[in-house]
Amino acid sequence: MDPILVHAATALVTVFLSVLGLALFLTFAGHVFGAAATRAPVLDLLVALLTWIPWIIAVCCFGWIGLPAAIAGQVLALLTWCFIHERLNAEAARGPRIIKFINRTAGRWRNPVALWVTVSALPVFWMIRFVEIGLYWFLPALLNFPTYRQGEWVNVSRQKFGGLVGHDLIWCLYCDWMTGVYSLGAEMLRNVESFWCPIRFYDGKKCDNCKLDFPDIQAGWVKADGTMTEVVDLLEDKYAGGERAWFGHPVRLTVKGEPPRT
Predict the structure, then answer these.
(1) Cα(166)–Cα(79) distance, rounded to whole angstroms?
(2) 112 with 2: CB under 8 angstroms?
(3) Any idea where the domains of the chain sit in the sequence?
(4) Among candidates 251, 244, 248, which has minimal Cα distance to 142?
């Protein structure tokens, strides 16, 4: 048999069994980790073991063919886990479910295809996570930017929701993790933008679109037709005292004597 096919089959089966085994362990015995398993940094390790670590190991052990084989093994593991979990929770699986509604309204093939399209964003979210873990800490160290308890942002809890099983559960946990990663990244970027570039955009529509993620646009940034004197005066007002958080950050609103909520 072609060695490449042997390597592909071996990588696929190895990743399938490893990922499925870890997923089943977390499902039925994850309580041994306690709440730590649902929050960063332990959650980071568990998600990595289920996502990109198998890719690296497969490529190192089996060459380039290991990557598609590992991904195929992960897909099979996910589908198998969903099948097992839904069979073990048959009553909930027969009841009202997200997948049933969306399949009915969007289409039986459009819904799963669209979901799998979102998986392509996984490496992007991991890149954001690496920046949050490995790079942002330089800014508090160098510039006194606020620090964050990352587990308060990057965590999962939808596994506690009653009736959420199988397919619905795994995709909701995926969104749960992504939402936390995105929210923490946006929070960190708010500090960066307001500290270095507190100037509104000339495009009013861009200001309107961005104000949700960057509230300081409407609550302090200098108008697009302003002057550099106004910019420097704003920086003096907001940062000269040593506080480096974005303008609406909770630490700026802390009542004297209470600990900052970061």
Answers:
(1) 9
(2) no
(3) 3-189, 198-253
(4) 244
Burial of 171 from C-beta contacts in 10 A (0-12 / 13-18 / 19+): buried
Q: Report in angstroms the alpha-carbon separations of 147 from 125, 153, 177, 196.
A: 20, 12, 20, 18
pLDDT tens readout for residues 159-210? 999 999 999 999 999 999 999 999 999 999 999 999 999 999 999 899 999 9
- ∠ CA 96-101-102 to the nearest 5 degrees? 140
* Structure token pair of residue 13: 């089966």
Whole-number Cα distances in Å, 9 to 215, 226, 238: 51, 63, 60
Per-residue model confidence as pLDDT tens digits over 25-61: 999 998 888 899 999 999 999 999 999 999 999 999 9
DSSP designation for 222: B
Q: Does the pLDDT value for residue 2 go beyond 90?
A: no
Asked if 98 and 44 count as a contact pair (C-beta separation under 8 A), the reply is: no
